[in-house]
Amino acid sequence: MNGTYKLDKNNVAVPCDDIEEWARWFGTAARRVAEDDVGSIRISTVFLGIDHSLFEGPPLLFETMIFGGAHNEHQARCSTWDQAVAQHAEAVAMARSELN
Hints:
With 100 residues, this protein is α+β, with helices and mostly antiparallel strands. 29% of the residues lie in helices and 30% in strands. The protein has 2 helices and 6 strands, in the order ββαββββα. The termini are far apart.
């Protein structure tokens, strides 16, 4: 296994044994889970397609980042689409807390 994954039709990450197959999929895939703006702060969550766990523990395939504000460059990674949706909501809440 080479650490590459693609999303199936249900947004479940499945391993790719063939790097060329992965590259073809990755080049055209809709990988964005969510993107929100809170004032001037942007929150983005995407499917990375490559395991960032360094093969220790479950694969880390999704990443949420905050751009701007007090939490600028905050980054969190997780393994599943559902976790990524929840992680994104937490990051949006962090950004909104700055406005209060």
